[in-house]
Amino acid sequence: MQNEHPIDRFARSVRGPVVVLAAICLPVCLLSYGWMVKSAIETWPLWASIPAIVAQIVVFLGIASLLDTRQERKNRQQGERP
Known about the structure:
Layout: H1 6-13, H2 15-43, H3 46-80
């Protein structure tokens, strides 16, 4: 692929190490996020904790929806190619 952008070539060359780093960092991220939520629920008043938790759930659902829409669009484009 001679007309490929240099950033694309770089991203493809570091894809493996980035996946490994993400696999290592994900459990730490989820654990610290859980501790943060637990700490917030224990220290904040109830009227502040509930909207914060609802907002986090809405954000996660929004991200999941965007990723799903993107995957559907990608699958549809691949199906149209000859």
